[in-house]
Amino acid sequence: MELLQILERYAPFNEQEVRDRAVLMGLLRTGQNLWTRENEAAHLTASAWVVNGDRERVLMAHHNIYDSWSWLGGHADGERDLLAVAMREVREESGLARVAPVSEALFSLEILTVDGHEKRGRYVPSHLHLNLTYLLEADEHELLAVKPDENSAVAWFGREEAVEASSEPWFRARVYSKLNAKLARL
After folding, report:
1. CB neighbourhood size of 161 (10 A)
2. What is the domain range of residue 175?
3. Residue 65 pLDDT class (50, 70, 90 cuts)
4. Which of 47, 50, 66, 162 could form a Cys-Cys staple with 73, CB 3.0–4.6 A?
5. Where does the record place the Nudix hydrolase domain (predicted)?
6. In Å, how far are 3, 22, 24, 115 from 8, measured between CA atoms?
7. CATH number for the domain harbouring residue 57
8. Cα gap 145→50, rounded to integer Å
9. What's the Cα-to-Cα distance from 38 to each of 44, 82, 95, 126, rounded to whole Å?
10. How many domains does the chain have?
């Protein structure tokens, strides 16, 4: 299914999702390439809210660039299956071998601002991440491993502890708390 169709069928959770979905759909309709980082103003990313089997714990990574505990995810880089992107990124960033979708349906969406920063010795200008989030499940007892070029630690947190672990106020209030609220409704 095309991304525009997925977004048309998606039922937004709150006003943030209503408004971000409208902007994202508008950008997709322009025909510009949003699938790669060649679009330095805005591009598609996929993130994961990774939970354990009883959905009481969340996997977070301590992100090097943002110096904060955060969800896992990354750039589409041309891949059109954003669920596959989220799953790939979780495996790469956590060392987990087994991760599975709780559902293949889109769990959340957000437009995220990214401040300019250095990455691998090169300046990356400020831009937007047009982010789709998927709910994934993994075994909390499986061995974790850091990805040194992206994170310095990977750990499981209680749902509320995961929110509090982040040092980014906007993410705590607008993203992670929302994901937990949606999770509580399942």
Report:
1. 14
2. 3-184
3. confident
4. 47
5. 41-182
6. 9, 9, 11, 29
7. 3.90.79.10
8. 15
9. 11, 18, 28, 13
10. 1
